[in-house]
Design goal:
The chain is of the alpha/beta class and 306 residues long. The protein has a single domain, classed as Rossmann fold (3-Layer(aba) Sandwich), CATH 3.40.50. Helix content is 44%, strand content 14%. Strands 3-2-1-4-5-6-7-8 form an 8-stranded mixed beta sheet, sandwiched between helices. Helix 2 crosses helix 10 and helix 4 packs parallel to helix 5.
Length: 306
Amino acid sequence: MGADAQACRLDGESIIVTGAGQGIGKATALALAHAGAAVIVNDVDKDAANSVVDTIREGGGQAAAVIAAIGTDGAAETCVSAAIDHFGQLDALFANAGVLRDSVLWKTEDAAFDLVIATHLRGTFQCARAAARQFRAQGGGGSLIYAASPAGQSGNFGQGAYAAAKAGIVGMMRSHALELARDKVAVNAIIPTALTQMTATIPALAPHVAAMEQGQPLPEQLRAKHGIGTAQDIAPLVVFLASDAARGITGQCIGIGGDRLSLWSHPAEIRVATQPGGWSADTLSGHWPAFSDGALQPVGVPLEFD
């Protein structure tokens, strides 16, 4: 085994993956187990979670299922308690659980908005809090990995609630990285792009989803130029971030998908002007054209994949 492979081994580690019954969560749970980790497989779907656990155990790994809806009170603590009860410790958590309730602003109902925010944003917060308390109690550091999204970075039509939740997750990540640095806990967000059930409804991707389901390889342009692949393409980044090899990486947004790896910038001022005595509406109006020329930022996730 090469040095790089050794560096990312997870033997003896205990890791929680939320939303691990399918898609990216399932692929990641299997990859973590293959790297030697004992995995808590969380999902709201009992059959799906147990199926992943069975697959891991059949391959000689260790796993246990926790059936709980992330974002509801007590779910995060139940996952952490299960890690301690089954495996004696907690070393990393991948907060991946999520739901979609896409609709444009004027059609979005409160219940749909609340569910998306509760599952993604509140759920990530609760999982991070429960894991952080355990890391601090046991000492030795750890790793928190949050699932963000291109929609949270750039916005996406019909995904206001989802984009808000994912943007909030990134903001939390940066704060948590600062708060947990002294405890040697690395905190990062991944920005995955993969063909899953959560992306299958995008019309431009529908033909590629159908082809993938028929066993056909994804076009090189899709994988390399647009960074869109399979759930299995996402899992190695989580394995890496959960390993000792990545303990010095914290506070970062890291994109992965298909053949592409990317590092996202943090929001920062790109242009500054001053006005002695402050700005009036009229001075803003007069100054704006020159001030903003060439600096306005694009909005929206690119949805052309040709």
